[in-house]
Write a structure and sequence with these properties.
Pseudouridine synthase, Archaeosine Trna-guanine Transglycosylase, Chain: A, domain 4, 3 domains
């Protein structure tokens, strides 16, 4: 007997993730609530973290890479005086320090962590080393020596100082930036040690807190009917930050069939914000998004059509 695959539904749901669950746990719970055939998330959050976790259904899964490439905003609480092996409150203490930086100490250190920097990921991360996950190696007592990786930090600010043991920061960053590493490294730069005690994601690409719904709102109805697709945001919502290019119906049809279009015929319509070298634009047939297209070598080529 073939297993039921679930409903074919398309769109985005932004969950306000609670602490204590993995991102995969949330996806599985939401997928069951909607009886959906296909779902995935737009950027992992640690179990300790709360906040925005966009869930893509059906055709929206094609747009996940563009959400993950988008700017993210976080707020984290740095607990000073204890380093932990996971760089967050879930880990074991590995080092202590009595040094407590002043607000001015933090503000002097912050500029070095902004712009394009190199960052050493936490040992407890999903990065693969010779085919193994770093966190599996660390749990086995074989913590890997991870090399620094490029990271982009657009904004890193001290926003509150509740007491001398605690500092709260807000960060805007690109993809693949670890808040646990930022917390660890800003403490080290100020002559002490520390770890993330709390972390909340406030924004992911075009999705903001006002778009999010609590996970417990998706509990089954009395009749156990699946959650309504009316709760979902359109697939194209994920692409709102990408420059829009107006196309004729004929151009849209050509791109949808995999054909490239010369940029000469699009002169005057190409948005100023689009990068002419490998830039991505949102192809529009009237008010309908047909997909994402790439500017390349004088041509507009279909990249990911919806």
């Amino acid at each position: 007997m073939r297993r039921k695959r679930g409903r074919q539904i398309d769109g985005w749901l932004v969950i306000d993730k609670p602490a204590g669950m993995t991102s995969t746990d949330v996806v599985n719970r939401v997928k069951r609530a909607f009886d959906a055939a296909k779902a995935g998330h737009g950027g992992t959050l640690d179990p300790l973290a709360t906040g925005l976790l966009p869930i893509a259904f059906g055709a929206a899964t094609k747009t996940v890479p563009y959400i993950m490439d988008g700017t993210k905003r976080y707020q984290f609480t740095l607990r000073l005086g204890e380093a932990r092996d996971t760089d967050d409150a879930d880990g074991a203490v590995t080092e202590t320090s009595a040094v407590r930086p002043t607000d001015e100490d933090f503000r002097r250190a912050l500029p070095a962590f902004q712009g394009d920097i190199m960052q050493v990921p936490p040992v407890y991360s999903a990065i693969k080393v010779a085919g193994e996950r770093a966190y599996d190696m660390a749990r086995d007592g074989r913590p890997p020596d991870l090399p620094p990786r490029p990271a982009r930090i657009d904004r890193f600010e001290l926003v509150a100082r509740p007491d001398e043991d605690t500092a709260i920061f807000e960060v805007e960053s690109g993809k693949g930036v670890y808040m646990r590493s930022l917390a660890r490294d800003i403490a080290r730069a100020c002559g002490t040690v520390g770890h993330v005690a709390a972390l909340r994601r406030l924004r992911v690409g075009p999705f903001a807190e006002e778009d999010a719904i609590p996970l417990d709102k998706l509990t089954p109805n009395d009749d156990n009917a699946p959650a309504s697709p009316d709760l979902l945001l359109p697939v194209a919502t994920a692409l709102a930050d990408i420059p829009a290019l107006a196309l004729t119906h004929e151009e849209a049809e050509s791109l949808s069939h995999g054909q490239a279009i010369s940029l000469l015929g699009l002169m005057g319509r190409i948005p100023d914000a689009a990068d002419p070298d490998q830039g991505i634009v949102r192809g529009m047939d009237g008010g309908r998004v047909i997909g994402l297209c790439r500017l390349e070598d004088g041509w507009l080529r279909p990249d990911r059509m919806l």
